Amino acid sequence: MTATPERERPRLDHDPRLIPFYPLLYVGWADGVLDEAEVRLIRASIEEAGIGVAPIARWLDPGDPPDASELLELLSEIRRLAAGGAEPERRSLADLGLRIAVAAGRDPTEEGRDALLRLEEALGFGGAAGVASILPAERPVADLPEIRSAFAVDAMARYLDGEQHLMRARVRELMSKEPFTRPAPESGREYRELVLECCRVLADEGLGRLAGPVEFGGADDPAAFVACFETLGYGDLSVLTKFGVQFGLFGGSIFQLGSERHHERYLERVGSLDLPGGFAMTETGHGSNVADLVTTATFDPESGEFVIDTPGIRGRKDYIGNAAAHGRMMTVFAQLETAGERHGVHAFLVPIRDESGEPAAGVTIEDCGDKIGLRGVDNGRLSFDQVRIPRDHLLDRFASVSAEGAYSSPIASQGRRFFTMLGTLVGGRVAV
Fold it and tell me: Mean pLDDT over all residues of the chain?
């Protein structure tokens, strides 16, 4: 039997007029979320620009998306063209597309420019973040210290610490004192309490609020927060982890996904560690497959509440930092359901303990035990049995539910909405 040869995908450069669309096509497929409606928008824009879609017909087929090698080839072509012209302004993917087209000697028509700009606005993605994913910003290079006959330790430290040298020095100074210098206790329970004590010192110094808005007790300085987080990594990694969970993940999720009323109600208490909490996303049966989480949040219009429920052991929130001992509230990711319709994963603030430290009604908390190298972190498992929370505990920056149970969102596409919600949380991954 003769093997059937694989179909050869037409190359995009069959029609150089398509060059302005390269960045949008790359980011759209690289995210893996282009749906039928978005493909139709792209087709219409290309036709509006007076260009036939035949050369890229298979690049606009959601059933047969480009593979990784083809995307890498497209990315290389974009970067090659960008390197051949003036440095593009990092404003939007449309700007980048127009500039690389000019660099390639293909100045788009007025119709083509207008069509591309309208397309980017309609798709709802791009901006400076999209450009940065294609053309990462160059790292600034600090001035070299003055050369001396003897090795200048202070100058080298200043050079390595970069712009955040004062913050790094401040954190190192704190880590050189009690309670940070205390040996780790043999008892896991006592070790966890020591780590909590260290985090309270950091909170009292205002370091947990560095990235938050000034009007709610923060410093609006995410770069300083990341520098603090990095420097803690030279000490006890249990302290680093608990600091990141409390102030980066818990506080960050409220700041990035919540609205102003959530900021007013919670951010100052989170930053001061008056409200210990965590980030309950991972499930036993799903790991990092966030889109398919099975925990549900069903809206009950009669009571005006969401009902949080764990459908079986695979839906347990697993290895959640701050859950086993100290956390009182969690940002819980669950499938939002209202009026019999499911709208995808959303984030909810769910109390898990009362003020006395006892588990809240309907909440089951298990201790995951010691973790090698992170014995001071209180990882736990959470299960919810018909736990009721107020409607305003939905973090509603990107979606809301009315008192009558009507769902609304400024982002029509469920896939795009999901991507946008997760995209606001990448700061923690950058810090790691």
Answer: 86
Question: Residue 373 is inside which H or E element, if any?
Answer: none
Cα distances from 249 to residues 81, 208, 319, in angstroms, run 38, 11, 14
Whole-number CA gyration radius for the chain? 25
Question: Which pLDDT tens digit goes with each residue over 5-55?
Answer: 444 554 555 577 778 888 888 887 877 667 788 888 888 887 877 777 776
- Name the token pair of 112: 């083509």
Among residues 296, 285, 406, 412, the alpha carbon closest in space to that of 345 is found at 296
Helix (H) or strand (E) holding 330: strand 329-338
Instruction: Say what percent of the chain tops pLDDT 90.
Output: 55
CA dihedral 189, 331, 307, 293 (to 10 degrees): -100
CA torsion angle 84 88 92 98 (round to 10):
-50
Q: pTM value? A: 0.66
Q: What Å distances lie between residue 18 and 36, 47, 111, 326, 329, CA to CA?
A: 20, 11, 13, 56, 50
Could you give the CA distance from residue 96 to residue 112 in angstroms, rounded to a whole number?
A: 14
386 in Cβ contact with 296 (< 8 Å): no
